[in-house]
Amino acid sequence: MQAFWLGHQRGVVQSTFRKWRLQNRPPVSTVPTVVVASRSIVTPTQCLESETSSSLPSRQRSISSPFDHQPTTAPTTLLFSPAAKKQNSVSHFHTHSCQLAQSRKGDLIGREEVIYVRRAMATLAAQSHVDLVLNVDNINPNVKAMEYAVRGPLVIRAGEIEKELAMGVKKPFTEVIKANIGDAQAMGQKPITFIRQVLSLVAYPDLLSSKEFPEDVKSRARAILESSRGSAGCYSDSAGLELVRNHVAQYIERRDGFPADPNNIVLCAGASEGIRSTLKMLSTVSGPRTGIMIPIPQYPLYSASIVEYNMEQAGYYLNEDNDWGLDVSELERAVNEARKRCNVRGIVVINPGNPTGQVLTRDNIVEVIKFAHREKLFIFADEVYQDNVYAHNRKFHSFKKVTKEMGDPYDKLELASFLSCSKGYMGECGLRGGYAEIVNMDPAVKALYLKSISAKLCPTVLGQAVMDCVVNPPQPGEPSYELFSKEKAAVLQSLSERASMIAKSFNSIPGIKCNTVQGAMYAFPEVKIPEKAIAKAKSLGQAPDVFYAFQLLEQTGMCCVPGSGFGQRPGTYHFRTTILPQPEKLQIMLDKFRSFQESFMKEYQ
Ligand SMILES: Cc1ncc(COP(=O)(O)O)c(C=O)c1O
Q: pTM for this structure?
């Protein structure tokens, strides 16, 4: 690999690059690349060549950058500044092929706006003399159109900043606080001992003879191993290990007081996989496109997957003034409006809610079920936060239980409910465990569903083992019971304290309003963005809340996701933060937020 260091100043860029180009003319048949710094980074050579040769505006020469100090290994992107738009010139390079591919026009990265990444990518194909099968103009358009804000440009920039800090670049803060994603262990939460012990034995059965592990841990691990042909390295059935599916069904029965059929349980690699496989079943190839009702704001897995599967999003607004509850009149408005353009066939309800943190009342669930029945809709009950309920006046009710309690005809509704080991008190996001309970699906359709998931072979057996621990936890009298209960209660108690701390703090900051975080792991406060800031955002080609979130990141190191990534009523602005930073860090974060908001308002009011 060629190591090529781009100095930041114009002369250095141009002369070093020219020299390098002379020595390293790429053969016509290879994709030209420039490797910046010692590791990383691939960038279209022709872009650099044609665009650095025009003059760099002087403003850009003085931009402070890690490049001014030392070579970088930071993942970065191809950046174009607004000032460079006219001159058609590249402001400076940092680079990362992945981010390059993800960047979109209008993204603000650092203080720079991405103006034409696509053009840059097309230039690569057009000028490289390579007849590439895939270019950005001919790939699946749905893949291009789908967006996932939780890991979007802001988060990529946060990663860059972390690397810049590690290299000694001076910033007004010393660390990036990643409050963008519901990843509890990444924010310092300790794994539950029982889960990790079972997992250790399943992964390394030789430890079964060790005296270090309690008997109940060993018996769980032995059972999982027996069910998985002796090793977690074997494929399981596509729907998952029979033992775990049985335990899931027993767990649901205990939770709801109604029978559950293990044949209706499909284990999956995180709830995401189950949600996506089920959603895919509703897509059509001819006739009007399938419409799926999703809450606004919503968790972007839904909006992204709907686009990817060529379906239509039929958004219904949650009622912010009523603790983000669901209004049937709004559901009716949304379905009627959507039916003018698509065939609405499903409704997603996230309870407890992400990003809104609401926990639906039973009455509200009854209303939604009646609506789904009236409108003949498949219900997606995203219940991954069912253990995360903090409000004393709220309780989790599963959609399935309520349909059963309502009886005929509601208990015949087609419904899928999802749980995950990523959330709750476990926070085992990286182990990718989850399940879907699919109720009342036509047996012929279910057979096709199972066929469709068989192409993926199976979810990881280790992820299934975690789910087994979740649905079959230690019981009173078993050796692990006490520690397990203590650890579980401590996590949930701390999350509950953080939930109320966050809402209280935000509500004491002028210009920010936050509903009670009744459950889940997020707050979704509304922020009043002054007209002057809106105009500034517009001048940068950014949504006002995106501008706000980038300013927050650059000035404080706090990474929260702009509300537009989840959807919000036009004219309102929000951001989503997790409640997951550990209490001391959360306090620091909230203090920083307060002073950021004050200075933002001072600057733009
Ligand atoms: C509402 C909701 N559903 C599903 C998921 C998917 O989680 P996983 O795939 O990790 O189980 C998430 C993750 O944040 C979520 O918030």
A: 0.80
Closest CA to 217 of 198, 232, 193: 198
Q: Give the H/E segment covering residue 512.
A: strand 512-513
Percent of the chain as helix, strand, coil, to the nearest 5: 45, 15, 40
Q: How far is the CA of 316 from the centre of ligand 1 (A)?
A: 20
How many C-beta neighbours within 10 Å does residue 101 have? 12
250 Cα: distance to centroid of ligand 1 (angstroms): 23
Distance 362 CA to ligand 1 centre (A): 22
| C-alpha span between 41 and 18 (Å, rounded) | 19
Q: Residue 174: what pLDDT?
A: 93
Q: What is the pLDDT of residues 361-405, one digit of tens each?
A: 999 999 999 999 999 999 999 999 999 999 999 999 999 999 999
Best mutation site among 181, 318, 324, 423 for ligand 1 pocket (most ligand atoms within 8 Å of CB) = 423
Residue 107's pLDDT is 54
Question: E strands of 103-262, at which residues?
Answer: 108-109, 112-113, 177-178
pLDDT tens per residue, range 326-345: 999 999 999 999 999 999 99
For position 147, what pLDDT does the model report? 76
Return d(Cα 21, Cα 17) in angstroms, integer.
6
Q: Which atom of ligand 1 is nearest to the CA of 422?
A: 10
pLDDT in tens, 515-551: 999 999 999 999 999 999 999 999 999 999 999 999 9
Measure the CA–CA gap between 577 and 25, rounded to whole angstroms: 48
Q: How confident is the model at residue 132 (pLDDT cuts 50, 70, 90)?
A: confident
Residues 6+ apart with CB under 8 A from 263: 245
CA of 309 to the centre of ligand 1 (A): 18
DSSP bridge partners of 42: 35
Taking the centre of ligand 1 as the mean of its atom positions, its distance from the CA of residue 301, in whole angstroms, is 8
Pocket, ligand 1, Cβ cutoff 6 A: 182, 270-272, 299, 301, 350, 354, 382, 384, 420, 422, 429, 434
Specify the higher pLDDT residue, 505 or 30. Answer: 505
Bridge partners of 438, per DSSP, are 416
* pLDDT at residue 108, as a whole number: 53
Q: Which residues of 595-604 are buried (b: 16+ CB within 10 A; e: fewer)?
A: ebbeebbeeb
Classify the phi-psi angles of 590: left when phi > 0, otherwise alpha if psi is within -120 to 50, otherwise beta: alpha
Which residues are registered as beta bridge partners of 519?
Answer: 389
Cα(440)–Cα(264) distance, rounded to whole angstroms? 9
Q: How confident is the model at residue 173 (pLDDT cuts 50, 70, 90)?
A: very high
Amino acid residing at 367: E
Confidence of residue 153 (pLDDT cuts 50, 70, 90): confident
Q: Is the peptide bond before 32 cis (omega within 30 degrees of 0)?
A: no
Helix (H, G, I), strand (E, B) or coil at 350: strand
Residue nearest to atom 16 of ligand 1 (CA): 354
Of ligand 1's atoms, which has the minimum distance to the CA of residue 181? 14
Q: How far apart are CA 242 and CA 224, in angstroms?
A: 10
Choice among 62-71, 233-242, 565-574 with the minimum mean pLDDT: 62-71
Residue 363: which of 322, 392, 333, 332 has the closest Cα?
Answer: 322
